[in-house]
């Protein structure tokens, strides 16, 4: 992990900066050097853009607070898009608490160096990158300050051989701190954010801050997902509203952003995550999986950008 802090994952050689000619757009900002930009910064920006222009849509999944099931939503959004026939990447930028490898049954997987950069772990047609793949021990704590985290996130985008993708889903940690800000600064344009909340008022209040963050950085809110909206009885299927329901919908309406849907508390969802199984894939016939697919559906109609779509 020390090597990653210095700019390389476990001593892997850094890939050569590629020329930014994959989009063929002469008006692309990476085609020319900015005023007072050094040669190194210019080449790094071109290398980053050469990756990003091969990705059709970039979507960040964020939340105002922890414990709302954001990573569960991100994993199932990515898998739902893959099941719809799309080429998808899933980038876990929760540096301190990477949970995507566990949720997809990829614990113990490692990152290798390929001829064009670091190779993401593949699961079917889904490409996955996470800090969890770079830890020597899963119990290791990552104790890094903001600038180092920003550098690692830049590596995840610039030095990983994502290839041609229709969608890159980015699972950001809770809040509006270094990681989501780094993503917004590095990816321009970014399609927008899917914001996850739970029904209770305290969660909805924190989500308002996430929506305000999006407005301040000029990022569109693609929609709000209300997770844990009612409890599905595993025996009879009846839904009981343990928490106040509808808070996410009311908040979305109040702030003028789309509402994508309400996902109930289904014990099978938590069980699937613990077993390393994407719920929407392994329980595709369940009513909850159908709800998840309905959340994915609007993302399939986003305007096409870049070459990856």
Q: Which descriptors would you attach to this protein?
A:
309 residues, Rossmann fold, nine-stranded mixed β-sheet, two-stranded antiparallel sheet, 11 helices
What does this structure look like?
By secondary structure, this protein is α/β, with parallel strands linked by helices. The protein has a single domain, classed as P-loop containing nucleotide triphosphate hydrolases (Rossmann fold), CATH 3.40.50.300. 34% of the residues lie in helices and 20% in strands. It is built from eleven helices and eleven strands. It has helices spanning 2-5, 39-52, 70-83, 100-103, 146-158, 178-186, 201-217, 247-255, 267-274, 279-282, 287-296; strands at residues 55-63, 88-92, 112-114, 117-119, 121-123, 126-130, 165-171, 192-197, 221-232, 239-240, 259-265. Helix 7 (201-217) packs parallel to helix 8 (247-255). The protein is globular. The chain starts with a helix and ends in a 13-residue tail after the last helix.
Quick structural overview:
This protein has 309 residues and is α/β, with parallel strands linked by helices. It is built from eleven helices and eleven strands. The protein is 34% helix and 20% strand.
Average the pLDDT over all residues and give the rounded result: 85
Biggest sheet features: 9 strands, mixed
Top-tier CATH class: Alpha Beta
Give the CATH architecture: 3-Layer(aba) Sandwich
Radius of gyration: 19 Å
Number of domains: 1
| C-alpha geometry | globular
Beta strand %: 15-25%
**N-to-C CA distance:** 34 Å
What's the CATH H-level homologous superfamily? P-loop containing nucleotide triphosphate hydrolases
- Element-level helix/strand string: HHEHEHEEEEHEHEHEEHEHHH
Structural class: alpha/beta
């Amino acid at each position: 992990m020390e090597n990653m802090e210095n700019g390389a994952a476990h001593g892997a050689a850094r890939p050569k900066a590629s020329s930014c000619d994959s989009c063929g757009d002469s008006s692309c900002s990476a085609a020319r050097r900015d005023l007072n930009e050094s040669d190194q910064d210019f080449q790094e920006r071109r290398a980053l853009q050469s990756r990003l222009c091969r990705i059709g849509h970039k979507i960040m999944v964020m939340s105002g607070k922890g414990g709302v099931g954001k990573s569960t939503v991100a994993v199932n959004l990515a898998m739902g898009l893959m099941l719809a026939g799309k080429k998808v990447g899933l980038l876990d930028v929760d540096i301190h608490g990477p949970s995507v490898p566990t949720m997809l049954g990829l614990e113990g997987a490692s990152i290798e160096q390929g001829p064009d950069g670091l190779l993401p772990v593949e699961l079917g047609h889904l490409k996955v990158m996470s800090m969890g793949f770079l830890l020597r021990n899963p119990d290791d704590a990552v104790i890094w300050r903001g600038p180092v985290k920003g550098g690692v996130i830049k590596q995840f985008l610039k030095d990983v051989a994502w290839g041609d993708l229709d969608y890159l889903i980015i699972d950001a940690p809770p809040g509006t701190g270094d990681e989501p800000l780094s993503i917004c600064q590095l990816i321009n344009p970014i399609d927008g954010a899917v914001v996850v909340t739970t029904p209770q008022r305290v969660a909805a209040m924190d989500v308002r801050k996430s929506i305000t963050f999006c407005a301040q950085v000029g990022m569109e809110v693609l929609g709000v997902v209300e997770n844990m909206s009612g409890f599905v009885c595993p025996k009879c299927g009846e839904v009981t509203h343990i928490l106040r329901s509808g808070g996410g919908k009311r908040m979305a309406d109040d702030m003028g952003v789309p509402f994508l849907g309400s996902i109930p508390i289904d014990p099978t969802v938590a069980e699937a995550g613990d077993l390393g199984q994407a719920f929407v894939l392994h329980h595709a016939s369940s009513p909850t999986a159908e709800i998840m697919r309905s959340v994915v559906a609007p993302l399939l109609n986003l305007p096409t950008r870049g070459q990856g779509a």
